[in-house]
Structures are given as structure tokens and as C-alpha cells.
């Protein structure tokens, strides 16, 4: 099994993927790419949320040609997602994309693929071969082994042309199938792996499926970049990705929230505090743990282990900072004081 520190290195618009113990966060816009204003706004919002590479869909030639203006107005690398028509890939490359994603299940014109590879080679543009369980070439029956075989078919052309700026993905809507496919890929290929569970559903379903599949793989050292697929606003993908990476000890500039589920012992109104602090901590880019606890059973100990925290009392909470009890706070002051103390950390 090849770990992320052992995969080949590719460069996507100045961002390294592979050959390091880092997992790069990606997302994809859901705007019409030809709507440059909407697309640029969404990309810039994603960057602010923590997205490091962004992908756009190329549905037609107008989308491909819009890439040039979009690139001039964003700061993070741009990937163009191509299906069915290789001419759109050629236009996107000439428009300045930083990387292209091809699906060998629906592009079969070998001459056109070779033209794309030559253009990418000239411009040092990586190619992601994106294998999807739902769009395998019809000659294959659905299985993890078939996904690997499909990648080999496409890789043969690229490697014959001495092209190795390649990233691979093996996505499925089934988390267990994803795990099996990516583990096979980590044994078979030297290239960096882009992890994802595709068609994962809404926020809750996606967070659970992605945590099962991607969390398992990343803890095994597999995976160089990820996209959390969510049927929601794309910025929600970034929130899940950052928390997942933090939980896997692969990202440390994300605040960690510890809070109890509450029970009949609680004597203050804790849940609104948790909700407000959770939203606030999305904006905090620090390696800190914040504990919001409900009662004296586990509260004081968990709060003392955190950088800052509160443990509930009757209509009040103890403020605890770096293991020391600071003072008691009335219910109405808890959020304000927590924010003030976090700003000082």
C-alpha cells in the first residue's frame, strides 16, 4: 500500500498534490460556468471558507471559453471538468485551466485524447482521470476491479506518451466500495489519489458517508486531496472537509468544539450557546479546542483539558482557561466572554 507521502508529486496552479503528509481540500461550483459573475463570486466565497482548489463544469464551448476571464478574477487553482466532448477540454486548456478532469467512461476518441495530452504536456497541466462507478465503460461489469481496469486503459495512453502529471480518483456512491477501490489503487498506482464519495446526498448523509470512507482511507495514509460531495451550497463541503481533516490530525488551523449532548442534570440553557459558538468557530483559524459542557459530571475535566471552556451550573457556567477556573459567568454573558477570550488566544 502506497502512502500519501510516497505518491508522485503534481503541481496544480502552484498547489502541490502528492508526496507529502497533507490532504488538499477541493470543491466544485454549481453555477453555470459561462455566468462569470456568479461563478467568480462562488469561487471567492469557497476560497474564504478554506477551499484550496476549485473545479468547474464545462458543459459547452461557452463554458470553456469563459475560463480565461474566470482565471483572471480568482486566486486559487481552477480545474475544468470535461465529459463526452474532448474539444471542450482542448478549449479549456487554451483558456488557461490549471488542471483538467477526464472521465474515460465517456471519452473514447483516442486521437483526441492524445491531442489533449500533448497540450497538457506543453503547458505542464495535470490530468485527473476520474473513474466513477456510475459511468464505467460499457465493456466492464460494475466492481472495484473494473474501476482499476478502466484507469489502466486510460493510463496506458498517457504513459506511452511519457506523461505522468496524473491524479486518479475512484468514486462511488457506496462508501465501502470507495474504500475497496482506493485501497486497490494505492497498491497498483504511483499517482496521487483524489478521494471522494460521489452522489453522497444532503449534508448529514454526505458527512456520514464521507467520514466512513474518506476518514478510514486517510487514517491509513491514503489520499492526497479530497472533495466532500454535498447536495447543498458548495461552502458546506468545505466545512465538512475541514472538520474531517482535523479529526484525522491532518489539519490544525481549525478550531475544535467539544460539547456534551445534555441530559436531565443540566441547569442552564446550553444548546443555544453551542449553536452560536459553532457558527462563530467556523471563522476562527486557530489550533484550539473549545469545550461547552453541561454539568459537573464531566464538565470541569473536559473544560480543563480544552484551551478555553465552560462547565454549566445553575443559570450560569464556570469559565475555565488553560486548566484554571477563572470565574463564574451568568447565562447571558457566556457567549460574549467566550468570544473575547478566544480572540486573546
Could you give the order of the helices and strands? EEEHEHEHEHEHEHEHEHEHEHEEEH
| Unreliably modeled segments | none
Extended strand count: 15
- Record the strand order, biggest sheet: 8-7-6-5-4-3-10-9
Summarize the structure.
This protein has 345 residues and is an alpha/beta fold. The protein has helices at 36-49, 61-72, 86-94, 110-123, 144-160, 175-188, 203-219, 235-247, 271-281, 299-305, 334-344; strands spanning 10-12, 15-17, 24-28, 53-58, 78-82, 99-102, 127-132, 166-171, 194-195, 225-227, 256-259, 289-293, 308-312, 316-321, 324-330. The radius of gyration is 23 Å and the shape is elongated.
List keywords for this structure.
345 residues, alpha/beta, 5-stranded mixed β-sheet, 11 helices
Describe it:
The protein is α/β, with parallel strands linked by helices. The chain is 40% helix and 20% strand. The protein is built from eleven helices and 15 strands. The strands form three sheets. The chain has an eight-stranded parallel sheet with strand order 8-7-6-5-4-3-10-9. Helix 7 links the parallel strand 9 (194-195) and strand 10. The protein is elongated, with a radius of gyration of 23 Å.
Amino acid at each position: 500500500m502506497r502512502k500519501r507521502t510516497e505518491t508522485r508529486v503534481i503541481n496544480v496552479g502552484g498547489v502541490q498534490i502528492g508526496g507529502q503528509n497533507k490532504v488538499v481540500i477541493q470543491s466544485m461550483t454549481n453555477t453555470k460556468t459561462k455566468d462569470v459573475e456568479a461563478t467568480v463570486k462562488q469561487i471567492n466565497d469557497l476560497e474564504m471558507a478554506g477551499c484550496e482548489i476549485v473545479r468547474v463544469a464545462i458543459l459547452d464551448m461557452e463554458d470553456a471559453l469563459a475560463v480565461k476571464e474566470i482565471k483572471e478574477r480568482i486566486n486559487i487553482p481552477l480545474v475544468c471538468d470535461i465529459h463526452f466532448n474532448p474539444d471542450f477540454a482542448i478549449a479549456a486548456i487554451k483558456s488557461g485551466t490549471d488542471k483538467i478532469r477526464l472521465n474515460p467512461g465517456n471519452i473514447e476518441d483516442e486521437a483526441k485524447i492524445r491531442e489533449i495530452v500533448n497540450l497538457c504536456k506543453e503547458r505542464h497541466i495535470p490530468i485527473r482521470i476520474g473513474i466513477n462507478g456510475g459511468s464505467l465503460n460499457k465493456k466492464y461489469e460494475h466492481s472495484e476491479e473494473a474501476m482499476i481496469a478502466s484507469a489502466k486503459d486510460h493510463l496506458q495512453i498517457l504513459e506511452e506518451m511519457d506523461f505522468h502529471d496524473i491524479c486518479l480518483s475512484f468514486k462511488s456512491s457506496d462508501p465501502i466500495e470507495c474504500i475497496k477501490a482506493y485501497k486497490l489503487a494505492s497498491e497498483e498506482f504511483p499517482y496521487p489519489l483524489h478521494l471522494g464519495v460521489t452522489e453522497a446526498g444532503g449534508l448529514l448523509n454526505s458527512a456520514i458517508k464521507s467520514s466512513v470512507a474518506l476518514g478510514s482511507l486517510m487514517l491509513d495514509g491514503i489520499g492526497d486531496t479530497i472533495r466532500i460531495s454535498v447536495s447543498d451550497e458548495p461552502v458546506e463541503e468545505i466545512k465538512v472537509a475541514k472538520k474531517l481533516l482535523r479529526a484525522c490530525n491532518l489539519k490544525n488551523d481549525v478550531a475544535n468544539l467539544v460539547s456534551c449532548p445534555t441530559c436531565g442534570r443540566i441547569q442552564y440553557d446550553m444548546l443555544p450557546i453551542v449553536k452560536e459558538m459553532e457558527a462563530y468557530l467556523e471563522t476562527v483559524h486557530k489550533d484550539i479546542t473549545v469545550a461547552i459542557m453541561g454539568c459537573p459530571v464531566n464538565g470541569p475535566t473536559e473544560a480543563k483539558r480544552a484551551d478555553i471552556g465552560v462547565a454549566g451550573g445553575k443559570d450560569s457556567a464556570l469559565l475555565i482557561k488553560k486548566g484554571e477556573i477563572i470565574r463564574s459567568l451568568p447565562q447571558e454573558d457566556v457567549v460574549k466572554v467566550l468570544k473575547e477570550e478566544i480572540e486573546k488566544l
